[in-house]
Design a protein that fits this description.
By secondary structure, this protein is of the alpha+beta class. About 60% of the residues lie in helices and about 10% in strands. It has a domain at about 45-130.
Length: about 270
């Protein structure tokens, strides 16, 4: 006697309970809100390239898929000589009604590796369908390449905006942090100021971030005016919050850097 048979014998109503639970789970899954599901428009099997009475079976297959799907993805390969190709994906509401088109590699070159190119195309599709999920994925990686991809999401307008076409404070902050990570310090400072504008007033932590960006910029370029920018930003942070320990600590860092340049060791 199997374990399941033993359970049924010891618990007479078990089978009915399991059946009811499965039915409830099925109903929950079926009723859950989901993003549009895109189906492949083209089938990879060679049999669909066969013509029957002058009609390509692939065309029949595309028509059948279009009848049962509201959204489709058509993926094309463009070959340029042996081993040289690009990938393109078209998001369609129905055959012939193209909403978006993306390609890989995104830099406009040729695919150096099929797996890498397919992954890049998948990320491009996801940037259109679930951009915030992709943004979180990149942010958790905390590396240079991921930061460049975050900047690209914002530069290409993939992150949704509000009804007035504006981004939220946290979006500008994420954009700024990514710009700083890739060494675009002046743009990062500008985005932090835009974040404050989006917040509708002073946002104390933004002053800390601006000051830190100036310090990182100084460490990279060794321009003394960046130390003044950091000092002014941390002083603004203390005006905003007099108990800001980060601002006090980093003002000390400004003083140390000025002393090392020969500007004296007084408190910044």
């Amino acid at each position: 006697m199997t374990y399941w048979q033993q359970r049924q014998k010891s618990e007479p109503g078990l089978a009915k309970k399991v059946s009811q639970t499965n039915a409830q789970l099925g109903a929950q899954i079926a009723s859950a809100d989901r993003p549009p599901t895109y189906l492949p428009l083209r089938d990879p099997f060679p049999s669909f390239d066969v013509k029957l009475k002058g009609i390509r079976l692939s065309a029949v297959h595309e028509y059948a898929v279009s009848k049962r799907a509201r959204h489709l993805i058509a993926i094309d390969t463009f070959a340029r000589g042996r081993g040289n190709f690009r990938l393109r994906a078209r998001l369609l509401d129905k055959p012939g009604d193209e909403r978006h088109s993306v390609s890989a590699p995104v830099n406009g070159g040729l695919c150096p590796d099929s797996e890498e190119c397919a992954r890049e195309l998948a990320e491009e599709i996801l940037s259109l369908q679930q951009p915030r999920a992709l943004l979180s994925y990149y942010a958790n990686q905390q590396e240079y390449t991921a930061s460049r991809k975050i900047v690209r999401l914002y530069d290409f307008g993939r992150i949704p905006r509000d009804s007035e076409g504006s981004l939220a404070h946290d979006d500008f902050s994420a954009w700024a942090a990514a710009l700083r990570d890739i060494g675009e310090y002046n743009q990062a400072i500008h985005k932090y100021h835009e974040a404050q504008s989006a917040a509708g007033g002073p946002f104390c932590t933004d002053y800390d971030e601006i000051g830190y960006t100036y310090l990182v910029k100084y460490d990279a370029d060794n321009h003394p005016q960046d130390l003044d920018g950091a000092k002014n930003s941390y002083r603004e942070a203390l005006k905003c919050n007099g108990n800001n320990a980060i601002a006090y600590c980093n003002l000390g860092g400004v003083s140390i850097r000025k002393w090392m340049r020969g500007g004296g060791g007084r408190f910044a």
